[in-house]
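To the team - 2-acetamido-2-deoxy-beta-D-glucopyranose complex, inputs and output below.
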Amino acid sequence: MQLGFLAAVALITPSYALLRFGCSQLVVQRTDPLVNPGMAPSPHVHQIIGGNSFNITMDPKKDMPASSTCTTCQFAENFSNYWTAILYFKARNGTYKRVPQIPNSGFEAAKGGMTVYYIEDSRQQAVKTTAFKPGFRMIIGNPTFTTRAEAQRYRQLTYTCLKNINTRSPETLEFPDKPCPAGIMVNLRFPTCWDGVNLDSPDHMAHMSYPESGTFESGGPCPASHPVRTAQLFFEVIFDTKPFNDPKLWPEDGSQPFVWSFGDTLGYGNHGDYMFGWKGDALQRVLDSKCYVNCPILKTQSFADMNKCSQKAVVDEDIEGWLPALPGRSMEREFRARGN
Ligand SMILES: *[C@@H]1O[C@H](CO)[C@@H](O)[C@H](O)[C@H]1NC(C)=O
Ligand SMILES: *[C@@H]1O[C@H](CO)[C@@H](O)[C@H](O)[C@H]1NC(C)=O
Ligand SMILES: CC(=O)N[C@H]1CO[C@H](CO)[C@@H](O)[C@@H]1O
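Output:
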């Protein structure tokens, strides 16, 4: 969705809620309190955004928002955490370099990070959109996936090859196979049907479901097992691949040179994590008030204040230099297409 498009429709005041806000990077390191609680380093590098109470262990029974003192997101004082893996460029000589991140159009002054959306279904107005509850968390995607068929199980985890910062299509399930003039945007849309009971589940996914038929966008109904309709959580993450676009830097075998921090050179292991941190019923009130892009009931902070909020990495290792192997991985464990 383009900012120009949003700005144009904002004038006609739609009757559904859509929050869109930029978040700077909080910390980039090998931790993952959902999949590997207590582990530092965890198996692969993540970039984390949001409230600064983020920690290697996060007890859902504790009120995490209350212990944050700042957030890297534009809407101040609401302290959810959001994270994804990061991308590396693999040089012909076998070394890896972290691909820098750039903010979205409209959020140019933010420090890397990502754009976060909470989108209410625009078609089924008769069905109430329920906000996530304190203690709620979820994951979408699976870093062990190596085939297209596997990737298709989690719809809507995609890549956009940016011709310019506003390019929004086409979306592909695998990494773009040609240099992208303005970078690669990673799109992560989370499922929108909740079982209404569990704030989490052993795989961090089973308490959520995609619509029974169709998609969220087409107004597909939620299945009986997961009857509660939530807002669609959606991340856009832009990796600045421009410094690596010279064909002379690309692999001689014609493959593309980018690799996720967990060793995936195809893109099928794309995944994202969410830990709800809105205070009390703040998100429900936002949805009920049909806030559209701008949300006067929320306090907005400046880019300078967002950028100021950061955390010192607890894992002390080089993730930025030209590295002989991906942090936490040996080169042998990097995987390529099965049967390719
Ligand atoms: C993380 O948790 C540890 C142990 O409870 C605590 O000492 C530390 O202050 C926490 N860090 C942050 C940023 O809250
Ligand atoms: C490997 O290649 C990169 C990119 O061409 C270069 O910057 C780096 O210095 C090289 N490293 C070694 C050890 O040759
Ligand atoms: C800490 C906190 O909850 N901050 C704000 C989050 O957003 C709501 C708006 O819905 C505010 O009322 C809170 O003060």
